[in-house]
């Protein structure tokens, strides 16, 4: 994703549950940063459910606590717009709300851009399109494969790197099936007709090889993780058990700096570089 919108519930008890140690507000913010999503917008939702309704004090309390947390995981709060909204009533979604006259607007201050506004729509308009990796080899994880009458086999997925060009001959890994396709650029979600390939030959999840090196962060796991542990991994569109073959190094999860070579185990909160082997290619 190019940007994440973190929805924070302002209702009594809801915010406290989300920002708690294992709450979804914390987890979603950390996942976004860990997955490389550097642009963040925070929408403080359900402002109509605060006590009293549309409470400035409640909003300020939430902004203060969420700002402290996202700064801790790596975001700069100055570059993150905070917008108080009510999705149910539409407050500050498309137009400024008369229910929150105290809200003077959000500001965004980062090296590449300075902006301000009031609504969530205006905040979304500040998203900066990233440089697409068109110079890299083509990689397109398949989301699904269809057989359409009169057309034939139609794989569907998102171009991650490279360019899909007219009449280009591509190979589906790991089954080594080749065919020609039409053009698409990184970030495009496409369906494309391919020749000489049966719908039975390729499937959701095709792309991954038989072994790979990964950076992992242990969010919440009871006990310790050692080599040989085999969790189920969701990688692009694949869903498969993968074994931790080797714990190569423990790293700082914010800076990526190496902390320890060949650690014996990992625990909740640790980040590491590991070798993984899928249960199937």
From TrEMBL:
UniProt protein name: Tr-type G domain-containing protein
> What Pfam families does this protein's entry cite?
GTP-eEF1A_C (PF22594), GTP_EFTU (PF00009)
Domain Tr-type G intervals: 1-134
Give any GO molecular function from the UniProt entry.
Answer: GTP binding
| Source species | Cirrhinus mrigala
Q: Which Gene3D superfamilies match?
A: P-loop containing nucleotide triphosphate hydrolases, Translation factors
What PROSITE patterns does UniProt report for this protein, alphabetically? G_TR_2
Catalytic activity from the UniProt record = GTP + H2O = GDP + phosphate + H(+)
Query: Where is the protein found, in the record's own terms?
Result: Cytoplasm
Keyword annotations from UniProtKB, A to Z: Cytoplasm, Elongation factor, GTP-binding, Nucleotide-binding, Protein biosynthesis
Role noted for this protein? Translation elongation factor that catalyzes the GTP-dependent binding of aminoacyl-tRNA (aa-tRNA) to the A-site of ribosomes during the elongation phase of protein synthesis. Base pairing between the mRNA codon and the aa-tRNA anticodon promotes GTP hydrolysis, releasing the aa-tRNA from EEF1A1 and allowing its accommodation into the ribosome. The growing protein chain is subsequently transferred from the P-site peptidyl tRNA to the A-site aa-tRNA, extending it by one amino acid through ribosome-catalyzed peptide bond formation.
Lineage top rank: taxon:
Eukaryota
Q: Which family does it belong to?
A: Belongs to the TRAFAC class translation factor GTPase superfamily. Classic translation factor GTPase family. EF-Tu/EF-1A subfamily.
Gene Ontology terms, cellular component aspect?
Answer: cytoplasm
Question: So which residues are the signal peptide here?
Answer: none
Broad class of where this protein is predominantly found:
cytoplasm
Record-linked SUPFAM superfamilies? EF-Tu/eEF-1alpha/eIF2-gamma C-terminal domain (SSF50465), P-loop containing nucleoside triphosphate hydrolases (SSF52540), Translation proteins (SSF50447)
């Amino acid at each position: 994703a190019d940007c994440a919108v973190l929805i924070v519930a302002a209702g009594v008890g809801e915010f406290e549950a989300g920002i708690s140690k294992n709450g979804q507000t914390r987890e979603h913010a950390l996942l976004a940063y860990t997955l490389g999503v550097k642009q963040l917008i925070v929408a403080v939702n359900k402002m109509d459910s605060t006590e009293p309704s549309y409470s400035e004090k409640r909003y300020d309390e939430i902004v203060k606590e969420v700002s402290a947390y996202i700064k801790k995981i790596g975001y700069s709060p100055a570059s993150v717009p905070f917008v108080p909204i009510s999705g149910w009533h539409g407050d500050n979604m498309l137009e400024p709300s008369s229910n929150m006259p105290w809200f003077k607007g959000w500001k965004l201050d980062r090296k590449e851009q300075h902006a301000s506004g009031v609504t969530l729509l205006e905040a979304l308009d500040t998203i900066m399109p990233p440089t697409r990796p068109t110079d890299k080899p083509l990689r397109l994880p398949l989301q699904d494969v269809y057989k359409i009458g009169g057309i034939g086999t139609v794989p569907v997925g998102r171009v991650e790197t490279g360019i899909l060009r007219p009449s280009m001959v591509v190979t589906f890994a790991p089954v080594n099936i080749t065919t020609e396709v039409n053009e698409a650029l990184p970030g495009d979600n496409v369906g494309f007709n391919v020749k000489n390939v049966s719908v039975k030959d390729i499937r959701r999840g095709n792309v991954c090889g038989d072994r790979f090196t990964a950076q992992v962060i242990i969010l919440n796991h009871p006990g310790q993780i050692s080599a040989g542990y085999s969790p189920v991994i969701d990688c692009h569109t694949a869903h498969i058990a993968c074994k931790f073959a080797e714990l190569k190094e423990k790293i700082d999860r914010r800076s990526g700096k190496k902390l320890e070579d060949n650690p014996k185990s990992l625990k909740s909160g640790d980040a590491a570089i590991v070798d993984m082997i899928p249960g199937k290619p």
